[in-house]
Specification:
By secondary structure, this protein is α/β, with parallel strands linked by helices. The chain contains 9 helices and 7 strands. It has a 7-stranded parallel β-sheet with strand order 3-2-1-4-5-6-7, with helices on both faces.
Length: 255
């Protein structure tokens, strides 16, 4: 279905687990060569080994998106290894606030450093490469939390709103270079990050059915669902789509 992605190199940040690994899995299934870039190197290596065990091409690289030198090193290593990076997926993200605890200035610093500046650092580092080749695809993982507020996580929500606007700004700036920039806004997806936040919520067993009743399809998305959207946006089938943020939330928000 996505034959144009076969043999292409896809660099995915934060891909050792959760949404990132789901995205990596879907690109691998499309025949792409996947670079799993993550600050947790042992987990990244294990994730790459799992994809290789299934017959896919995958490698692990160390990456801390809050460290400009780490970003430059990761990008250069990827280019040195494969000559060409065709797709960048900015997935690395954090939710540092905790249920029932007040949001602090430090929470804003932490969320923005990874969720917003991390996207900027990676994109900026790969831009000369994309421009030199006259094309590139960038997919940015935002969140429906960037579209609608949640009382307990203002720092996270604000950072993801910034990510959505950054996606649009980058699309406007980079379109002239034949670079498509789009976003995916996941809804509630059970990942290590979201489960860590929910762990402190009281009566979570009673809240779960109510939360599912708020979405049209009455189910949560899975990491591979986010991956499917990312693969589409990176493919030639989306060649004339840019500056868009696609909700993948089982029908929680509709537009």
């Amino acid at each position: 279905m996505y034959d144009d992605l076969r043999g292409q190199t896809v660099l995915i940040t934060g891909a050792a687990q959760g949404l990132g690994f789901g995205i990596a899995t879907e690109f691998a299934r499309a025949g792409s060569r996947v670079i799993i870039a993550d600050r947790n190197v042992p987990k990244a290596k294990a994730a790459a080994a799992e994809l290789e065990r299934l017959g896919h091409q995958a490698v692990a690289l160390a990456l801390d998106v809050t460290d400009a030198q780490s970003v430059r090193s990761c990008v250069q290593t990827a280019i040195d290894m494969f000559s060409r990076v065709h797709v960048l997926v900015n997935d690395a993200g954090v939710l540092t606030e905790r249920y029932g605890q007040p949001t602090t200035e430090q929470h804003f610093v932490e969320n923005y450093d990874v969720n917003v500046l991390g996207v900027w650092r990676m994109t900026h580092a790969l831009l000369p490469h994309f421009k030199a080749h006259g094309s590139g695809k960038i997919v940015i993982v935002a969140s429906i939390a960037g579209r609608t507020p949640y009382a307990e996580t203002p720092a996270y929500c604000a950072s993801k709103a910034a990510v959505i606007n950054l996606t649009r700004s980058l699309a406007m700036t980079l379109g002239v270079h034949n670079i498509n920039v789009n976003g995916v806004c996941p809804g509630a997806v059970p990942t290590e990050m979201t489960l860590a936040y929910r762990r402190d919520m009281p009566n979570i067993a009673e809240l779960e059915p109510a939360s599912l009743n708020m979405v049209a399809l009455r189910r949560h998305a899975e990491p591979e669902d986010i991956g499917g959207a990312a693969v589409f946006l990176a493919s030639s089938k989306a060649r004339n789509i840019t500056g868009q943020c696609l909700n993948v939330d089982a029908g929680f928000l509709m537009s």
